[in-house]
Amino acid sequence: MIVAKEQFPVLTPEEYFIWEEKQLEKHEYINGQIYVMTGGTVNHGRIAIRFTAMFETHLENTNCIIGNSDIKIKMANTHNYSYPDASVTCDNRDKNTHDYITYPCLIVEVLSDSTEAYDRGKKFRMYRQNPILQDYLLVSSTRIEIDLYHKNKVGEWIIINYQEGDTIELKSINLSFPIEQVYRNLSLN
């Protein structure tokens, strides 16, 4: 999704939840600032759907929760909330909340020109404060390319760039798949 900053009142997290329930659009809440979420491209939407469907099928007999862009994530140790394109949590603590999840092991963001720098930079710095997060997937919507930020066993983040012909490995949910599965029948620039 594309994030656009507008003039909104400064709200506490509690006020944000009450206010957002009355809005037609979704809004991220970062450091007291509100950012409206606007629509993405057709490719963006189709790619996000493919990930949530793939995760749902793979994890259907587990206790994991698969999130689409309607499920808000509370960033660990903050009062910041975002709407990634897809997420997975297998943490039992997330079964006790109704408005958001806090402990995803996997987050997917489909990139757009307007959000790519933010998704790779500031947003990832906030997400990686979560000790449970293992995989952060950044997915191009214009070419066959996916970057995986994976936290290894010693807690270091490594970046793996996948391109045409590669098989993506998500250790957080024990899933491997060919990159072409994400991009089939899409019109790419």
Automatic annotation (TrEMBL):
This is Putative restriction endonuclease domain-containing protein. It comes from the Bacteria. Transmembrane segments: none annotated. Gene3D superfamilies: tt1808, chain A. It comes from Crocosphaera chwakensis CCY0110. Residues 13-173 form the Putative restriction endonuclease domain. PANTHER family: GLR1098 PROTEIN (PTHR36558), RESTRICTION ENDONUCLEASE DOMAIN-CONTAINING PROTEIN-RELATED (PTHR36558:SF1).
